[in-house]
Amino acid sequence: MTSAIQHAEPSSAPGSTTTVATLRLRDWKTPIAFGIFTVIAAILFIAYGRHGDATFTFTSLSTDVVHVPDLPINVWGFGIAATAIAAVMTVVSVAYVRSRRDIPRWYLALFAFVLLVCFLAWATAGETLPIIGLLGGALALSVPLIFGALGGVMSERSGVVNIVIEGQLLAGAFVSAVVTSSTGSAIAGLVAAGVAGMLVSFVLAAFSITYYVDQIIVGVVLNVLVLGLTNFLFATVLTQHPTTLNSPKPLPTFAIPGLSAIPVIGPVLFNQTAIVYVMYVAVAVVFYLLFFTRTGLRIRSVGEHPRAADTVGIDVSSARFWSVSFGGAIVGIGGAFFTIGSVGAFSEDVSSGQGYIALAAVIFGGWHPIKATFAALLFGFANELQSELSILGSPVPSQFLLMLPYIVTIIAVAGLVGQSRAPGADGKPYFK
Amino acid sequence: MKLELRGITKRFGSLVANDHIDLAIEPGEIHCILGENGAGKTTLMNMLYGLLPIDEGEILIDGVAQHFTSPRDAMRAGIGMVHQHFMLVPVFTVAENVILGHEQTTFAGHLNMAAARVRVKEIAAQFGFHIDPDARIEDLPVGVQQRVEIIKALALDARVLVFDEPTAVLTPQETDELMSIMRQLRDSGRAIVFITHKLREVREVADRITVVRLGKVVGSVSPGASDAEMASMMVGRAVELTVAKGPAKPGEAALVVEDLVLADRHHLPVLDHVSFTVRRGEILAVAGVQGNGQTELVETLFGMHRDATGTATIDGKNLLGIGSRAAIEAGVGFVPEDRQRDGLVGDFTVAENLMLNRSAGPPFVRHGGLQLRLLRRFADQKIREFDVRTPSASTRARQLSGGNQQKLVLARELSRDLRLLIAAQPTRGLDVGSIEFVHERIIAARDEGVPVVVVSTELDEVTALADRIAVMYRGAIVGIVPPDTPRDVLGLMMAGAPVDGPRQAA
């Protein structure tokens, strides 16, 4: 996909270090992707076009103050319009590449948004789609992903690859169910989940930091171990004493006064269970910790260049150990979502691979807590979309819809939306 | 503050890296520690800086014995270090690197970056240079990065500053600037320890010189001593400082490179319209500060980097993007700059390493089977011919010294009929004896009529070997000049200054 190369600037004069000439390769990846999506849009919305109105509703059950009217959409007309917009945007993206300018992020987002809205309308033709339900559900499904991604960021920023997110989620889910059932306190359950996640981290940290064992191998083995252990305890202990050990009361949903009255986003963001509010705090804490504090600077330094950190007197092993452990605690709390945060009781393999999706969110989010959060939200949305659409009885086969979150993940991680750079020493043991 | 080392000894297994070393370092003095690669200089300094435990002996500051268990202790005692490989986090800013490890914070653990910026500017101003505290390290030229290392040490109020081989990555001009900073630091009453193997620098800046050989202090010399005197003390015998080399008898053009262009992942030019020719029987030396495209140039000539554009031909046959295997078959001999990563398989035997580039077929492989007896005979012969000091042909390459590893690589590359020899940093990290040997072999290859491309960041090596010198800067060839071009002109070219017309030797 490489064609001509040219100078953006001539080579600079001696001594000046500010100007850097660039040789920009024309990168046709984005226009090609745009083109493919436009063709898919034309096939879906025009060749297999549907007629009738799709109605998007914005009412929530309880907390509405301002009423947002329903939005009826003419599916056929909108489909043609959206396909046309997509075609025009594809042409413009070609112009961007020809003139060797970067395609801005907002442009990608706009393209995706137009096609997404059109797809929703097409899939709901003749029915109504509750938008608040969709977004709220998406947020809920994102909760474990966001916790997992935050824990992953904490760990990987310090230089330890965290494959064990899956195991930490599962451990958190199990322990919170048991502790909440036996004590009756959801708070105790959340704390216990954090401790469980941390304990899993201790094992990862001990093997990978102290004994230099390959981090991926330890991670994979730990995931299998946690899965086996929880399955065993579930089959032998929990099923024997279901009432005392595995019937936790789910966390209640409560609305935050004022904030929840904001139209559309209020009920989505601020009418949730406690664990979601804990998540908001966790995102803020991890962001502040990593980028504005002494601890964060040290964690990032051992993840980027441990020897440099060592020579200024930072204890690399201990910084990594505590960063991995803190990350584990966050993931553990996220695991509680699977039990006390939603259905209540624990069942075998309740995390069902979400930890790996969280890991993808870490990478897609460029090892940045806020960006990783948005990546997790995207994956959560894809997941929720799948279940909403199968309820609506959309013409897309449900098997295909089940694949949707994973396709989004692969496209995202494959770097379609820009390459990201891992911490310099991520995954590398530090030999003093 | 006076620093004394008494009877410092360090052993690694059976190897004695430092053998009862005594040193006294006085404030207001630049004390050079001169020694070859592998003489134990860096080991000594790592002990002084708390990075390695001391087996025997003691460190005294103003007569008080010190016990450093980590760099933190050494820093607290007033010792600062400018490392050979900078200890800077590339994605951090200057200010973040300077405060790392002793950060000031305000409310809620919030980093006090404002204070850090002020401190960086203050220290830089003392030495008359400007530095942007918010610049990211990876965006800065190496010379500036080194200043950040110095500022880092000074921010902790270091009284003794150790410079470990600080000039390896600098242009001659940057080296001069560093020397002047070192003098300023000395004049401010600090003690400077300057570790190097470059005689020129020592004579220019040293107040006192201690020579180290094979882990022992062999004596001191006055800064006025001759090069030959210092060199023979460092090596332990009389050495030829320049290799005997007859005039080149260049034949027809063999390697023709035209308009070679290569970009990296960030669209930055790595090779920027590079053109040159090398004739049979001549050595073109590519000079330049490390990281100005030399590595990519030789890799491209060796058939790698498939996305390079332009032309590169040897005797009319294309080399561009053909892959290393095809390049070997086209008769290209390649001595890579990192012999341990790219030149050898450390866990293979000497004999196995000697056939690495001929693993596809005869003579060493027939019908899929290794010809072990032939290989053995071949290896024994090459070991003698290239004076590889190894217990046997079945010793693992990893166990050889750097010089012997390099001889092994040369033996392999020179044991075929070559149409082109490419040698990147052929003597990096070698002792003087090995350097002589490698140079002789490269010149011998030239005299047999092979066109040779040598890449080196050491100007001494460039001028010793070159029949013509090409200077690279930011991926482009600044100019091609004759070997007798003065050092300061070469230095300016290495910083990107174009040459004036008459000097061009196309």
Keywords for this structure?
heterodimer, A: 2 domains, three-stranded mixed beta sheet, 65% helix, B: 506 residues, alpha/beta, Rossmann fold, 3 domains, six-stranded mixed beta sheet, 17 helices, globular
- Summed over residues and divided by their number, the pLDDT of chain A gives a mean of 84
Structural class of chain A: mainly alpha
Biggest contact: A-B, 35 and 47 residues
Major beta-sheet overview of chain A: 3 strands, mixed
Q: Briefly note the CATH topology name of the largest domain in chain B.
A: Rossmann fold
What is the global morphology of chain A?
Answer: globular
Estimate percent helicity of chain A.
Answer: 55-70%
Number of domains of chain B: 3
Strand percentage of chain B: 25-35%
CATH architecture of the largest domain in chain B: 3-Layer(aba) Sandwich
What can you see in these coordinates?
The complex is a heterodimer of chains A (432) and B (506). Chain A is built from 17 helices and five strands. Chain A has 432 residues and is mainly α. Chain A has two domains: 113 residues, no CATH class; 242 residues, no CATH class. In chain A, helix 6 runs antiparallel to helix 13 and helix 15 crosses helix 16. Chain A is globular and about 60 Å long. The N terminus of chain A is likely disordered. Chain B is of the alpha/beta class and 506 residues long. Chain B has three domains: 233 residues, Rossmann fold; 170 residues, P-loop containing nucleotide triphosphate hydrolases (Rossmann fold); 71 residues, no CATH class. A six-stranded mixed beta sheet of chain B has the order 6-7-8-3-9-10, sandwiched between helices. In chain B, strands 16-19-20-13-21-22 form a six-stranded mixed beta sheet, sandwiched between helices. Chain B is globular. The N and C termini of chain B lie far apart (55 Å). The model of chain B has no long low-confidence stretch (mean pLDDT 88). Classes of the chains: A mainly alpha (432), B alpha/beta (506). At the A-B interface, helix 11 and helix 12 of A face helix 2 and helix 3 of B.
